[in-house]
């Protein structure tokens, strides 16, 4: 474990490095040699050792059963491996930044595995576009009740503080019983009209929410049976504005593939096809989790409102990835409703 004095020395060296570089966005390469907690590791670099915390996430605190589970999950992912690290914030005993392993953002991987919570913008300072991508990753894990989302009454630190404050206020005012806590996505958005069959969630504190379709099955163009499970959904991640400013957001297509082998390491461009026209959605954010022999690949693609609008209004529209096609006709009315609620129809 890195001692306190050593940590301060290396942090000081990083500060000097940032001061003489053109940007504080330099990427460092190092080996993970120890785990401090569920979001912080000890990184050994050529210049020394440093405590490196994963950006924009929080994990269960010490003393909770899930704390050890999450810490062990992070250990299994990174211990002894070489990672890339881009510090964005320097504190006295650690830095906070983006850490990647084989081009996978480990903060997002922790969110996808249900091993962490996504921090509100008011606490993290994350830019809005980046926030929406992280939020979509967390939303998938929440819908599956994965990890921390499967433990009743387990909440991140900022929600615990709100509950404690409310309980103390109720006690001072003589109110009977504790205040019921709100879930991270368990609030109701009073500005939304009828959501129909869309899956949805909302956080009143951050005014962020999501609307999502049910899962779409695929059709294999060559007729061969796929050796695993394969599904896709489309989600609208949004933030409610103040006053005259309406909600703004992004559309994300999330594909989940479970198989005994990796299928989309390199060839993973997705194409939207409608009325004999093709729009390349580009390369995705990719996350991987291994569970014994089964490998789970999650691919997330940003989609423009124009592309989604054309998919909704074409009888033969589909999304294509390799030899797999996802036809929009099965969720056409869900997508139309999503566009209306997004103010984009």
Quick overview of this protein structure:
Helices cover 27% and strands 34% of the residues. The chain is an alpha+beta fold.
How many β-strand stretches?
Answer: 19
Would you tell me the structural class of the helices and strands? alpha+beta
Low-confidence stretches: 1-24, 162-183
**How many distinct folded domains?**
2
The best one-word shape is globular
* Mean pLDDT across every amino acid position: 79
Approximately what portion of the residues adopt beta-strand conformation?
25-35%
Neighbour order of strands in the largest sheet: 9-10-12-13-17-16
If helices are DSSP runs of H or I spanning 4 or more residues, what is the number of helices?
A: 8
Please give the alpha-carbon distance between the first and last residues: 55 Å
| Biggest beta sheet summary | 6 strands, antiparallel
Indicate the percent of residues in helices: 25-40%
Radius of gyration: 22 Å
Helix-strand pattern, N to C? HEEEEHEEEHEHHHEEEEEEEEEHEEH
């Amino acid at each position: 474990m890195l001692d306190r004095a050593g940590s301060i020395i290396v942090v000081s060296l990083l500060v000097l490095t940032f001061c003489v570089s053109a940007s504080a966005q330099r990427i460092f390469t190092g080996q993970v040699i120890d785990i401090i907690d569920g979001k912080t590791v000890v990184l050994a670099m050529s210049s020394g050792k440093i405590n490196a915390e994963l950006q924009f996430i929080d994990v269960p605190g010490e003393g909770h059963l899930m704390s050890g589970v999450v810490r062990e999950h992070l250990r299994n992912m990174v211990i002894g491996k070489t990672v890339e690290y881009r510090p964005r914030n320097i504190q006295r005993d650690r830095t906070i930044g983006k850490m990647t392993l084989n081009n996978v953002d480990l903060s997002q991987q922790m969110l996808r595995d249900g091993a962490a919570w996504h921090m509100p913008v008011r606490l993290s300072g994350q830019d809005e576009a980046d926030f929406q991508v992280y939020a979509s990753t967390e939303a998938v894990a929440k819908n599956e009740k994965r990890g921390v989302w499967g433990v009743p009454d387990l909440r991140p630190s900022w929600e615990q503080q709100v509950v404690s404050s409310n309980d103390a206020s109720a006690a001072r005012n003589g109110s009977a019983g504790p205040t019921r806590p709100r879930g991270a996505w368990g609030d109701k958005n009073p500005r939304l009209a009828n959501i129909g069959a869309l899956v949805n969630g909302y956080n009143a504190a951050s005014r962020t929410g999501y609307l999502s379709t049910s899962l779409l099955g695929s059709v294999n163009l060559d007729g061969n049976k796929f050796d695993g499970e394969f599904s896709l959904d489309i989600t609208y991640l949004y933030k409610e504005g103040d006053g005259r400013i309406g909600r703004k957001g992004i559309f994300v297509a999330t594909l989940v593939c479970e198989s005994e082998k990796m299928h989309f390491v390199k060839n993973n461009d997705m194409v939207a096809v409608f009325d004999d026209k093709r729009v390349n959605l580009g390369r995705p954010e990719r996350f991987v989790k291994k569970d014994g022999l089964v490998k789970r690949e999650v691919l997330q693609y940003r989609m423009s409102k124009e592309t989604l609008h054309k998919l909704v209004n074409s009888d033969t529209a589909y999304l294509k990835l390799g030899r797999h096609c996802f036809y929009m006709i099965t969720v056409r009315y869900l997508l139309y409703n999503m566009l209306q609620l997004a103010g984009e129809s």
